Amino acid sequence: MNIIKTTCAYCGVGCGIDATVTGNRGVTIRGDPDHPANRGRLCSKGSHLGETIGLEGRLLHPQIGDQRSDWDTALNLVARSITDTVAEYGPDSVAFYVSGQLLTEDYYVANKLMKGFIGSGNIDTNSRLCMSSAVAAYIRAFGEDVVPCSYSDLDEAELIILVGSNTAWCHPVVWQRIEAARAAHGAKIVVIDPRRTETAEQADLFIQIAPDSDVALFNSLLAEMQVRKAVDADFLDAHATLPDGFWSSLSISPALAGIDEAMFGALADLVAAHPRMITLFSQGANQSVVGTDKGNAIINLHLGLGRIGRPGMGPFSITGQPNAMGGREVGGLASTLACHMGFSEEERDRAQHFWNAPNMCSGPGLKAVDMFRAIHEGKIKFLWVMATNPAVSMPDAGFVREAMARCPMVVVSDCIAETDTTAFAHVKLPALGWSEKDGTVTNSERMISRQRALFPPAGEARADWDIIAEVARRMGHEHAFTWADSAEVFDEYCRQTASENDGTRKLDLSDWVGLNKAGYDALEPKYWGGSSPFADWKFTTPDHKARLIAVTPPQTRKADPAYPFALNTGRYRDQWHTMTRTGFSPKLSQHRREPLLEIHPDDAAAKGIKDAALARVQTPYGTSLFRVRVSDGQRRGEIFVPMHWTDQTSSDGRTNLLPGPHNDPISGQPGFKNGKAQVEPF
Ligand code: SF4
After folding, report:
1. Angle in degrees, CA 531, 533, 534, rounded to 5
2. Which pLDDT band holds residue 550 (cuts at 50, 70, 90)?
3. Residues 119-141: pLDDT tens digits?
4. What pLDDT does 651 receive?
């Protein structure tokens, strides 16, 4: 039977899949042995994709209110609503909230419409919640959002430090690769995390730090390396700049990280002894009110030791979603323009010229949390949500629901008919789902791969890029939104990276300019920037030097007797986001049937809470009920709950009602990992 090569719908590992269509929406899934990201491996979620592609629950037709509509009527209504809203209230009264589930072509068209033709920066993606702190840290250090490593570096590393990453559960195929490096040449694995996760249990060294103490730990490590004369002064002289007083701003303070000197010494010994060192960081580092500083503390260590741009070395952020990276590249974040450009007058002019855009935005737009705040305040009057479920996934999700309920026009394009977010939609537009989409994605190591259609569209569903282009044309922008297929959109994106690149940016797809449909369909996985984009040690700054950034540990939070616990949130191995897809798989649901509140035995005893009983978690933002799992993997005073469950899947256990909307001031990423909470028996 015919094998169709595509990529997994879930995480940023970006595994290649060999799909064999076996009948009407039937498919056999195997790992693609030829895909460099996974070499044939898949995790449980990817392996069970075939169980999640039925038509059950699909949005099959456009809907206006509760009534079935047709595309023409619905698209005209959306286009007219945007035009009228902009005419009455200005371009910043309109916002798009998009998703790392979109393909790069979808993202490209949405960004172009908003930033060049509506004239606002108000397009942000749910990737803001996932890795925007890493983006900000890379831009501060390198002058461009460039992940400096690839998975092949994991194969060559002698020491792999995992920071805020339950890799074994959340990026299982990367974890298998790390285990292979350990088996092949004895790579050492260190896990730095406030929780003793499934990954931590398999580490050579587990550093159970206090929440948000990563900056103190990495500053201490760099200071310790200076004392041990392990700093690479030649590299720093030639390829980096340091702010005045940088070294004196560091101190060796393991107690600030909540660990003792012996533990710190063991970590420092490993770092000193293993030059081929990867520091792989994920949401535990990024989802913090000091997430950007954490990223820069990690990058500082690598720059200080000259451990970047060489095999088996580098500060490596891995993304949660399948195409968070593609969104970063084309401008899906409100804080970047397109193709890694910022909002300087020169960059805006270049984008305007390339797009022949009549209404260029004047600057960045509102980031996710601020966007929903502006909706709540009535400043944004039109919201288009694409392929995401903010009614569940945003922090302070109760407030987000209130905001959408107040918004005069909410459009939702999605493949699922009934989500917590579609409940607020005035217009629902049926979008293609995985197995129907056709386009490109970029994984965590900057590898662009094709996602290919296995089946015809469900019902009247259409590609997101096509829906957006239809709306743009109905707004009078026919000349700029006339692509025949996703291959033509991709070609325009490649041309923008090439023609608008001033020669210094690593993101340059000029090799692919002019690719025809056949070439696009046959596209093999390929990195942008190469497997090691800083192998030349030329960074994207005016002097081509990297920047060490002085970062200071945050103040310790004042004790609050009303909310004495630190609230941490995260993922389960076999569920994905708000379960709108994985919830369809009976096999995946067997792993964890309900969300569990994890609490240290001493805290449980003090509260009179027993294992398997129910307990209520309360924060200043909401209350939710969970079954209890007493676990000594938690630090005392800290609790953990998973993020996935929704109104649709459980009458309680809703987690994102609980975290507050507190952001990193640089990246705008919410601090999901260290909220404050109270726990009481139910
Ligand atoms: Fe899919 Fe990620 Fe699992 Fe790979 S590791 S199969 S991309 S969920």
Report:
1. 130
2. very high
3. 999 999 999 999 999 999 999 99
4. 46
| Interface pTM, i.e. ipTM | 1.00
Name the segment(s) of the chain with CATH classification 3.40.228.10.
Answer: 130-318+542-547
Provide CATH 3.40.50.740 ranges for the chain: 63-126+345-433+459-516
The pLDDT of 453-457, averaged and rounded, is 96
Q: Look at the pTM and tell me if it is higher than 0.80.
A: yes
Dist. CA 46 → ligand 1 center (Å): 5
Q: Residue 109 CB: number of other CB atoms within 10 A?
A: 28
Query: Among the atoms of ligand 1, which is closest to the Cα of residue 171?
Result: 5
CB distance 103 to 486 below 8 Å: yes
Question: What is the torsion angle, in degrees rounded to the nearest 10, for the CA atoms of residue 373, residue 376, residue 381 and residue 382?
Answer: 70
SS3 258: coil
The CATH code belonging to domain 3-52 is 3.30.200.210
Q: How far is the CA of 102 from the centre of ligand 1 (A)?
A: 16
Architecture of the CATH domain 565-681:
Beta Barrel (2.40)
The reply to whether ligand 1 has any atom less than 6 angstroms from the CB of 12 is no
Instruction: Write out the CATH class of domain 63-126+345-433+459-516.
Output: alpha beta
* Ligand 1 atom, smallest distance to 11 CA: 2
Atom of ligand 1 nearest to the CA of 14: 7
Ligand 1 centre and the CA of 632: distance in Å? 29
Whether the CB of 10 sits within 6 Å of ligand 1? yes
Q: Which atom of ligand 1 is nearest to the CA of 172?
A: 5
Query: How far apart are alpha carbons 460 and 105 in whole angstroms?
Result: 20
Cα distance between residue 487 and residue 9, in whole Å: 20
**Ligand 1 centroid from CA 612, angstroms:** 31
Asked if residue 556 has pLDDT above 90, the reply is no
Closest ligand 1 atom, CA of 17? 6
Ligand 1 in contact with 173 (CB < 6 A)? yes
Tokens read off for 331: 């401008």
The verdict on the CB of residue 318 being under 6 Å from ligand 1 is no
The domain over range 130-318+542-547 is classified in CATH as 3.90.226.10: no
Residue 366 has a CB neighbour count (10 Å cut-off) of 24
The ranges of the chain annotated as CATH 3.30.200.210 are 3-52
Q: 14 alpha carbon to ligand 1 midpoint, in Å?
A: 6
Q: What does the pLDDT average to over 383-388?
A: 97
42 CB less than 6 Å from ligand 1? yes
